[in-house]
Amino acid sequence: MFHELDQVLLQLKSDTRTVPTEILFCNVINYFGRRRLPTCALHVFVEMSQYRCQRTVRSVNSLLSALLKCGAFDKMKEVLSSIDKYGKPDACTYNILINGYSQSGCFDDALKLFEEPTGVTFGTLVNGYCKNFKVKEALKMKHDMLEVYGVCPTVHTYASLIKALCQIGGLSLAFKLKEEAYEGKIKVDSAIYSTLISSLIKAGRSDEVSGILEEMREKGCEPDTVTYNVLINGFCVENDLESAYRVLDEMVEKGVKPDFEEAAVVLDEMMFKGYKPRRDRLEIFLQRLCESGKLEILGKVISSLSKGNAVDADC
């Protein structure tokens, strides 16, 4: 692939009748970023002028994004120092830089980039703090974004904080933040509820899960595949396979696409323990599994069902 790409670029350089577009070079730079080749990405950017192609903030953004993917933070700083030659940084530039500073742990430098930070700006920084287990700093930033900058937290900001709190055992505060989000007219999504449900199960508080599920539906937030997987995993850990399959059964009934690998494990355990699923639901599940084209998983499921004489059983 590299050889063919070099040949195309050499041909474009020699053909003076053609002026390659900037987007072409952006795609090449992005390609090298995905391949984790920062030097190649930088070389293409530097060489663009020899192809009679003007560099703008658009190609600078592609280069910064590629360098970020490679973790080349020092090279990002070098590019940033000369960015004014190519135009004024835009929102895309700032978001790339925020991610870069956040990943490298330079949160203060990231915030200094902005005179008027947005919800996306703060959300990215909060997420960066959370990923670095700096939950105290993340909570302070959430407070400052509203009280100091007058920027309302987004659902993604709350999702990052709640996930981080659950990871360190801060369930009580995580639930308080959920309520705070609702008070701020922010619609809490299934991802947040799934995180809370998973944490409740891990904390041995499975009896509270039904209340959370009821609240979800009251708020107009239906469980998704992730939510159901969390429930299935929880029931399997507690060795309550009947409840695990009941959840799987509900997924089929509500038309939620199941995680077939997860379902195959549950079915195998059920058959091993002597519990046979209902035939009508099983037929629907097998039909969807066939439609998905996951033949290897289908083979495992049929093998499990055959061992338990459930393939033709009307349970």
Automatic annotation (TrEMBL):
Short name of one Pfam family for this protein?
PPR_1
Q: What is the top-level taxon of the source organism? A: Eukaryota
Q: Which Gene3D superfamilies does this entry report, sorted A to Z? A: Tetratricopeptide repeat domain
Q: Where are the PPR repeats?
A: 90-124, 189-223, 224-258
Q: Which UniProt keywords apply?
A: Repeat
Gene Ontology cellular component? Answer: mitochondrion
An example of a Gene Ontology BP annotation on this entry?
Answer: mitochondrion organization
Q: Which Gene Ontology terms cover its molecular function?
A: mRNA binding
Instruction: Give the family this protein belongs to, as stated in its UniProt record.
Output: Belongs to the PPR family. P subfamily.
Q: State the protein's name.
A: Pentacotripeptide-repeat region of PRORP domain-containing protein
Lineage per the UniProt record: Eukaryota, Viridiplantae, Streptophyta, Embryophyta, Tracheophyta
